Fold this sequence. Notes:
2 domains; aa-tRNA-synth_II; 5-stranded mixed barrel; nucleotide-binding; ATP binding; CATH 2.40.50.140; binds aspartyl-adenosine-5'-monophosphate; 13 helices; Aspartate--tRNA ligase; aspartate-tRNA ligase activity; alpha+beta
Amino acid sequence: MNERTLVKNLAALPDGPVTIAGWVETVRDQKKVQFVILRDESGAVQVVNPALRELPEPVEGEAADETAPARLATTEAISALAHGSFIRVTGELKHDERVKLGGLEVKLATLEVVSESNPETPIAADSSLDKRLDWRFLDLRNPKQALIFRIQTTFLHALRGVWVEKGLIEIQTPKLMASASESRAELFEVDYFEGKAYLAQSPQFFKQMAQAAGFGGIFEVGPAFRADPSFTSRHATEFTSVDTEISWIDSHEDVMALHEELLVAGFEAVVAKHGAEIQEHFGIELAVPSRPFPRIPLAEAKQIVADHGYVVPRADADMDPEGERQISAYVKETFGHDFVFLTDYASSIRPFYHMRHEGDASLTNSYDLIYNGVEISTGAQREHRVDVLVEQAKEKGLDPEELEFYLDFFRFGVPPHGGFGMGLARVLMLMLGESSIRETTFLFRGPTRLLP
Ligand code: AMO
């Protein structure tokens, strides 16, 4: 690695020589002194250079100042610096409370322009989201945008901590499949040698396979693909799905308990590590949600929003986005909670693999988790009795023959199990009060976006 000190570590160092490297944020080129704000991935610092605008006239009897040509060249190089160029600076660190930016500065000794930037920056702070996404690598240089992915790292690390501690196994499931794993409506078909393959819409079948394989519990953080033509703030054609599946459960309640535990651990870690930065950049005082999260059966939730004057358009359908917003507002007002589990979805609007209520096949052991007005997850206990599963598949118009490989999992002994899938970018969007998952996805993919 090239030697350098990260800007965030300068504060702890005594005055003395340092080497730093980063991007030119601004240059203030005054006659006698030049200021460069240098930003690396950890922060920004002021670099000062006493300017030498021309070589001093030789004075008779005095030796010429041998450092002058180099100082003149450095002054000229700073005057010519473009915003965004990557530079390496050596100099003297000096702590000085009067310096607004972090109470320290680096007095420049040498400057190396490692990689020049085009002087015309194609995006500005007020550029449209679409334009910013066109230039995503420049957009992500903004500390606020980069912070989102630091937070995501902390969040996922905390979830992994819970999973690993419980002995769950991390798996990577194939994204090329021979059949659909969710509704056929949103399926990407790709040429596959002489035939066709489909991009995985979720790891659903494979996470259940791991239960049949005796793994006990698994998790996966990986891509999922949906050929969804919509342009909403919450839909992508490719997204990162956080999935888990556990065996030997009594009902979906066990899945919800794990779901809560994971989220609380994730929020605890994020609040502890980034609470102040989130406040600074997003103006949000993030709090750790309390357990248990409120639970409301879907039918009751629809009744509640109806009583508040909003009738979900189709009585036999899922909550629509407005219904989700309204039930969230109700839960916030009534329970002071940002999360709500909507439970007991009708079998008619759930996939064939959801287990139905004992004694009332019209309802499923399933839930959606709503966070600040938007669905972030679906979870359920799965049907593990193969005869029931076949009947449910047929009822949904699926051909059991096409599902043979999946149905086989249930013909050789499989424990009762369940799990959930959660859209990572949605969680981040709602946590940080962002307006779209385009902001919280490293590289967004939508119907009209395949670049960069
Ligand atoms: P579902 O289809 O509800 O369930 O997806 C789970 C979660 O994934 C996210 N999500 C999306 N995010 C961005 N763009 C999309 N187009 C998109 N579609 C879904 C949402 C959603 O709640 N196999 C089940 C999960 C399970 O039961 O384990 C499933 O895929 O946050």
